[in-house]
Design goal:
The protein is α/β, with parallel strands linked by helices. The chain contains 18 helices and 16 strands. The structure holds 3-[O-phosphonopyridoxyl]--amino-benzoic acid (PXG).
Length: about 475
Amino acid sequence: MNAMTPQNQLSTQEIQTLDSAHFIHPFTDHGDLATRGARVITRSEGVYVWDSEGEKLFDAMSGLWCVNVGYGRQTLAQAAFDQMMTLPFYNSFFQTTNVPAVKLATRLAALAPKVGDRSFEHVFFSSSGSESNDSNVRMVRRYWDLLGQPQRKVIISRHNAYHGSTMAGASLGGMSGMHAQGDLPIPNITHIGQPYFFEDGKPGETADEFGLRAAGWLEEKILSVGPDKVAAFIAEPIQGAGGVIIPPASYWPEIQRIVDKYGILLISDEVICAFGRLGHWFAYEKFGYKPDLVTFAKAVTSGYIPLGGVMVGNRVAKVLIEQGGEFNHGYTYSGHPVACAVALANLDIMEAEQLPQRVKGEMGDYFAKRYAELNDHPLVTAAESCGFVAGLVLVKNKLTKERFNEADAVGMVCRRHCFSNGLIMRAVGDRMIIAPPLTLTHAEIDELLRLIRQALDLTQQELHQKGLI
Ligand code: PXG
């Protein structure tokens, strides 16, 4: 088929050829891509995207964990247009500012709940999650330098965490494949185990017992590094790219106890979890812990335009601002007026449609209930959700929880059936995960679950034919 796309009148094949010739994609084996040809996504509406062959896909990944308000929102386009015609860009370096950035910082400060003695009055802006985590490293080190403790350099993170793809982001992350390329992590970043009960829980151990044990790895690491050398602990509330790893309820309170005991800073990387995804504006509120710095990006604009940043808690802001003088750090696009204007319009939608409340309330309950029904599928175990993120494990034997071999690439088999049957669902090893737009209706939740079940059935058939089950 030689379908034409309205935007450019190039055939799918022509686009694929040009794509292969010129476009280096993120995290892609280009030899492999060239043989298949990239799927060309051309348009979108609501929870759907369409490709250049006219195939309609239910986008259960919200683009890439971003499009929380769904596609096709005219007010976001209008906000960008209006701002571009008024002031498309000006920097905020040399004692200048702009109105959308000021308004957005003020609004985010008001949305970030105060917990205990921690409040968030200040925001630092970047254009992505990775940059924001680089900024975190700079801010954390500056903070301890200003307090006369320059030896506190070590940041502790977790294996299988994702904190971005820049030098610092990839180092903070705990992805072994990323560390294997380019001599990462950079010095003074170290990792502990993740709170993945399904994989690491011991026979007879409850989830909460495991949660305490997993949090205890932080204390062990602090003691082995030397408490006076540790600057901060960084973690995602729920690991996203790592496969939607939802920690047991006991985990976060114990982490808080440990960071408090040793006085180290806590960074909550909420690039995926903030802005309603877990039913709250910020996810630390859901788990009841008290971060000093909160990384955000993605859904702050619902992905319509790049924007990221760090909510800087009063503990750090006070030192940086009152004692710091000039902080020699910032980006051309810190506080970009168009990105901030789109973010404000995005927050307007989220507030008007009460999206966090929706996820926390009846709609979230309905999603959780329907999703948990997948546990009755012969291939599935540990199907669980939190707000509007969800994961499940594909298993060879449901009773013994025997897992597939890595070489079986069972996640990729399932992902292929999802795609060829109109569903975008992500595979992480043997885990299948989703993070749908927060606007889902009951009917869309039903449709999503029907599509997932269909893909699981087809996966089961294929695995059976191959003799793998
Ligand atoms: N922190 C977290 C928690 C993230 O999920 C980043 C930082 C980096 O953000 P930027 O904007 O620099 O990409 C992320 C990004 C996946 C996938 O495979 C996840 C992300 C990015 C790309 C792929 O699930 N998360």
